Amino acid sequence: MSLDVPTAVLEAAERREVTDEQFLAVVRDSLPYAWEVVSAAAADNTGDKPFGEHEVPPPSERERGQLLRALASTSIRGALERHFGVTLAFQNCHRVAAFSSAQVDSEIYREFIGIRGQLLNQSPELRDC
């Protein structure tokens, strides 16, 4: 199980009354490393850079698992994108980029998410990530 969901939030979900804020609190508390990485990438998305980015490999498999769960889940990823006001892109189990909505139709975004960008961001030490 990737999220530790408090009983009150489960009950709200059963009543179809769960909010983004409640869900985000569960994500932040359950996947703190992933929250930190996405938060850092979003904060790094400043006007002097083409996009915000986090490239540091996770310190352990536990943290890598958190990041993979957060970015592989459509609902978690979508909530993070709405909260931080970015579109997330992901490569190699650790490279997370945060693009503003204006950047999503840019050449740099297409390069990052394209097959060429993926292939050029490979290395033997990341083979099993």
Automatic annotation (TrEMBL):
Superkingdom of origin: Bacteria
Biased composition (Basic and acidic residues): 46-63
Positions of region (Disordered): 44-63
Name assigned to this protein: Uncharacterized protein
Organism: Pseudonocardia oroxyli
